[in-house]
Amino acid sequence: MPWISDVGRHRVQLLSFEHPRAGAVRLPSEDVLDGHVDWRLYLAALGHPAPVTTAEIMQVVPDLPLPVVDDFIDLGLIGKHELPWRHRQDPEERLYLRARLVPEHIGREEAAALGWTEMERRHRFLEGEDLFDGDDLFSLLAALWRGEDNKSLRALLTPEARALYNQIIDGVQQGHWPEHIITDRSLWGLLSALWIPSDLINPKLSEFHAWRALCNCYRWVLVGWFDKAKPQIERLLEAAHERRRKGKYRLPDAIRAEIYTMGAYLAQETNELEFAIKLLELAKNTHVEVRKNLLRLQDRRATVMNDRDHWENPYLMLGIPHGYPDWEEQWRYLRRDLNHDVDRLTHINAAKRRLAHAERHGSDFYVIPLDKTIYQLSEDRSAKLLPDIEALQRQTRQSRPEDMAQLRNRSVKSILADFQENLPQEMK
């Protein structure tokens, strides 16, 4: 057939193979790489270096079998910028393609739907689950966040994460860490779990140290250990007063207000009402409850000493937060637990009487904390010790001849069209 050019013969020769994939079939010549878009798309899908644009590929993505779409992804011919998942009708296929190309946007439930265990466990770790059900990286990191340092963890970390891990562990002994660690609030839960201070905390070291010292004071108040809380609150008050070079306070206003409020509360044990009132005046513009506490202390100061109620908040006397609704259940528990401790029983019974009276007639107890969320950390964990998110590995099989049928048929038609144009005049 003299009207068939050399390129045409080479194309026909290539089509004589059922599945002329690159690496399995050698091109008869490089000139076959060019041609109609349908021809070039077929060759490109087979892995041959035919010149195709992403726009040309995206025109056929909606109708291709999923393995062929995966081929284009593996070949680097389309990626996340082309948003191929938006061109598929099947929701499962859309999710799968997102997992392959934008895995950082795959949520926990989506990972579970895909059967993507690693991503699902990553989310479970980040959301604060304990993960007792394994010994992989995520389980060992969850244990670390509980204060359990498993030496086998280090070998599972990336070099960057291992360096951070070493800095965290090395700092635990003295309670000192580099600034990039101590200023990262997402790591505070980990530092708190690993670090058990053996002495009073210096709250001037960082906001974390001040926060941890404040939390310790609150816990000691709840158990009635005022002899431990007072020395620590004195250090906290010093830090709360201190300013940096430019005149800005060292600690945030919210933490300073909590410090002054707790300091004023503890000062009442020894009737240092003037001192307590001065502390609250320093924070009266930060929180409405500070102003209410200030009025309570001013009223207390104006009351004859013998007529004053006991200074402690009765909720705190029972070891529970202010306003705790099930305080009677806590009282009953303590009564059983302290059955032979007469002094403690007298103490909690006095708290019960005051709370029962308050339920009938109203209450006006000194309130700490001002904002309980300041003492709480998010259950979410930092991703700093995790490896970078890797895309979901290909889940489809390698494409077969039947998967390529659509592209092959279109390429054949494009060659026939070329032949039609090149036929001798007498054969048209």
Secondary structure elements and pairings:
Blueprint: H1 6-15, H2 37-45, H3 54-60, H4 66-74, H5 91-101, H6 108-114, H7 117-126, H8 137-145, H9 153-156, H10 159-172, H11 179-182, H12 188-194, H13 207-222, H14 226-241, H15 253-267, H16 273-283, H17 288-302, H18 314-317, H19 327-337, H20 342-361, H21 405-422
Keywords, separated by commas or semicolons:
single chain, 428 residues, mainly alpha, Serine Threonine Protein Phosphatase 5, Tetratricopeptide repeat, 3 domains, elongated
The CATH topology of the largest domain: Serine Threonine Protein Phosphatase 5, Tetratricopeptide repeat
User: The biggest beta sheet, please?
Assistant: none
Secondary-structure class: mainly alpha
Tally the helices: 21
Count of individual beta strands: 0
Average pLDDT confidence is 93
Query: What coarse outline follows from CA principal-axis ratios?
Result: elongated
Gyration radius from CA atoms, angstroms: 36 Å
Q: Could you estimate the helical fraction of the residues in percent? A: 40-55%
Question: What string, H for helix and E for strand, traces the elements in order?
Answer: HHHHHHHHHHHHHHHHHHHHH
Distance between the termini: 14 Å
Q: How many structural domains are formed by the residues?
A: 3
Q: So, CATH architecture of the largest domain?
A: Alpha Horseshoe
Q: What low-confidence regions span 5 or more consecutive residues with pLDDT below 50?
A: none
Query: What's the CATH class label of the largest domain?
Result: Mainly Alpha
